[in-house]
Amino acid sequence: MNEKETLKEFQQIINYRFHNERLLYEALSHSSFANESKKQRNSNERLEFLGDSVLSVVISDYIFEHFKHLPEGELTKLRASLVCEKALYDFSKKIDLGNHIFLGKGEELTGGRERPSIVSDAFEAVIAAIYLDGGLKAASKYVLSFIPEDIKPHSVVSFVDYKTALQEIIQKNPEEKVEYVLKDESGPDHDKKFTVQVMLNSNVIGEGSGRSKKSAEQNAAKEALALMGYEAL
């Protein structure tokens, strides 16, 4: 399929028609494709950033309203299980997202369409595109279409959210501040490696690497927890 046909087919799959189709085009454009394109193209990285926040708001609102008996800590764990990379990758399979992403040649040849980090980031970018095109109501309808109606806290995918665990420990001291800083980004577009440091105030308390920024942050938080004596998490 050419690009126009891909956009048309994907809109039919997700049952949403874009007023501004350029938003969808950008959401489906991986950085490897944008970098190889002869014309100036934007990758989906900025949309992925926005989509991550929209996804969190929609999911938080949903579980807050549907699980009124759960305390804050359990709500946090439930949300983490629904917005983690594995969950988003599983959601993406339902709409065949991987086969509709625009990839560069190198990424195409190395299995980028099946790489969870690429596909889950594109999933978030599509959320942002719908949000910008149709507003929060349209984005919410899209996101919630992936949430099982019979979801139960004990039945969600097991996922250890090291970032949240670290935050819960640190926030016991209100004056302390945790932030994640990108230390290094290396490798070609189809084989990126990110290294992130987690800082407590101005001190490095952990470092981690991964194929995506999200996984690098999780690994940095995991190391910080281990150094603090929480290896069992």
Distance between the termini: 46 Å
- Which word captures the global form? globular
Can you summarize the main beta sheet? 3 strands, antiparallel
For the largest sheet, list the strands in their spatial order: 1-2-3
How many strand segments? 3
Q: Structural class, judged by helices and strands? A: mainly alpha
**Oligomer type:** single chain
The residue-averaged pLDDT reads: 88
Regions with little confidence, pLDDT below 50 for 5+ residues: none
Helix/strand order, N-terminal first: HHHHHHHHHHEEEH
Q: Hey, roughly how much beta strand do the residues contain?
A: 5-15%
Number of helices: 11
Q: What radius of gyration results from the CA coordinates?
A: 18 Å
- Portion of residues within helices: 40-55%
Task: Write out key terms for the chains shown.
11% strand; 233 residues; mainly alpha; globular
Describe this structure in words.
This protein has eleven helices and three strands, in the order H-H-H-H-H-H-H-H-H-H-E-E-E-H. The chain is mainly α. Helix 2 runs antiparallel to helix 8. It is globular, with a radius of gyration of 18 Å. The model has no long low-confidence stretch (mean pLDDT 88).
Give a short overview.
The chain is mainly α. 54% of the residues lie in helices and 11% in strands.
